[in-house]
Every structure is written in structure tokens, then in C-alpha cells.
């Protein structure tokens, strides 16, 4: 996948789209060798890589560093970078500086949360030639307004709001929308009403694709995992075992062996 047009084509053909996050060069290299369609350099980097409790600590500078590292090894995969907290809520010039920094760092598209109140920014970014991925539902940058990481759209009013927002993002020209933590039935309805592809996370099977955080996929997240996470690898255990083996080899003088030494 190398263009936003592929997202539209995949939806038209009924082919599901897989997206995973990456934040550094070694993980981008692994994703590049896989069949996964696209990479998101998400603001979850603030939590997963930097240990912050929320994504509010992500900055444009932080995302630029991660985007550069990912783009160097993305091997032709489509790279989308997140616009971090408030970076697109300070007016069009500030938003465009952030977009420019991410795109010149190697992103081919940007993702931003919400739509209400920044429709002009979204339109301006798209009219400047930069594809935009929308993101509605549980938008983690609004965690304090939601009172925690909660499923969104469970009652009629909230569901109607999400439907309206999804249509607004489509009308503004977004190429795709992430639906995060919304009831599966609502996500399927939004998906069937829109011509652009929806990418779900905690949104059931009825979306056009799925996105997961790489560290969740690989079991490297260490803490409590939300119910939508499927771990495909027990990475934490495998890495701990490897480190313990290395530790005992060092302490019991089994490492390095002669063939690992120079004469
Ligand atoms: O920042 C991120 O990684 C995300 C996805 C998990 C949707 O926004």
C-alpha cells in the first residue's frame, strides 16, 4: 500500500485493511517485512515509549523524532503520523507548522482526533495536499472530558453525534476514519453509511480495517490490556527469558565463547 487511493480501492473491493503502530526504526523494519498494509506513528508513543499515563504528553517534536525513525525503515509502507494534543487547535498556521514538520519527517498522511471546532483546519490541511485520517469515538486526547478511557456512543444521543461526526469528516475530504472503542453495531452502521474506509480499534468486525498498537500485538505492553487487544506473541515473557539466559551466561562465564571473541 503506498497511496490513500489504495484505502478507497480496498473498501470498494471489500478487502480488509490492517494497520499497526510503530515508533522506532527496528519495529518499522519488522512491520515493513510483514503483510500489514500501513503504519501509524501514533501519539500512544507518549505512553508506550515514554511511560506517560496518557497521550497528552505527546508533542510535535516527539512525534517528529518517531516519524523520522519509522520512515527510515518503513520500506515503502504507507506512513501516517498523529497530530498530538492541541497541535491542531491553535489556529491554521500552528497546525500547518505541525503538519509540515511531520510530512517532511517522512509521513505521507496525518491523523487527528475529533472534528467539531476544527473543521477549517482539516479542510486547510487536505486542500494543502496532505491526506487526513479522522479519529472519533474514544479520542484519548479528550480523556479528561470523558472521565477516563471509556466506550463512546452507547446511548442514542452519543451515537447520533458519532454518526454526524463521521459524515462531517467524510464531507471535509478525509481519506479514512479511525473508530475507537465504539459499540460494534454502531461502527458497522457508520461503515455502511460512508464511502470512505473505517479503521476500527475496539469497534468490532464491521469496520473496513483494524488498527492495533504494535506492543499490544507482540505482548510487550506489560500492564492491563483492554478487551479489544489480541496478543499474538508473549513478547514480554520471551524477552525476559532471553535476558535471564544472557545474565546467567555472563555470570557463569558461558558468554562470550571463543568463537565470539577475537584472537
Ligand atoms: O496513537 C495511537 O497509537 C492511536 C491508535 C491506537 C488508534 O491513536
Summarize the structure.
With 263 residues, the chain is α/β, with parallel strands linked by helices. It has eleven helices and eight strands.
Structure notes:
42% of the residues lie in helices and 14% in strands. The chain contains 11 helices and 8 strands. The relative contact order is 0.12. It has 263 residues and is of the alpha/beta class. Strands 1-2-3-4-5-6-7-8 form an 8-stranded parallel β-barrel, surrounded by 6 helices. Bound molecules: 3-methyl-2-oxobutanoic acid.
Q: Could you spell the SSE succession in H and E letters? A: HEHEHHEHEHEHHEHEEHH
Q: Show unreliable segments.
A: none
Number of strands: 8
Ligand types: 3-methyl-2-oxobutanoic acid
Main beta sheet strand tally, sense and closure: 8 strands, parallel, barrel
How would the blueprint of this fold be written?
Blueprint: H1 4-13, E1 17-21, H2 25-33, E2 38-41, H3 45-48, H4 60-73, E3 78-82, H5 92-104, E4 109-111, H6 119-127, E5 132-137, H7 143-146, H8 156-172, E6 176-180, H9 184-193, E7 198-201, E8 209-212, H10 214-217, H11 235-251
Parallel strand pairs: 1-2, 1-8, 2-3, 3-4, 4-5, 5-6, 6-7, 7-8
Helix pairs in contact: 2-4, 5-6, 8-9
Residues 21, 40, 42-44, 82, 178, 180, 201, 211, 213 line the site of 3-methyl-2-oxobutanoic acid.
List keywords for this structure.
single chain, 263 residues, alpha/beta, eight-stranded parallel β-barrel, 42% helix, globular, binds 3-methyl-2-oxobutanoic acid
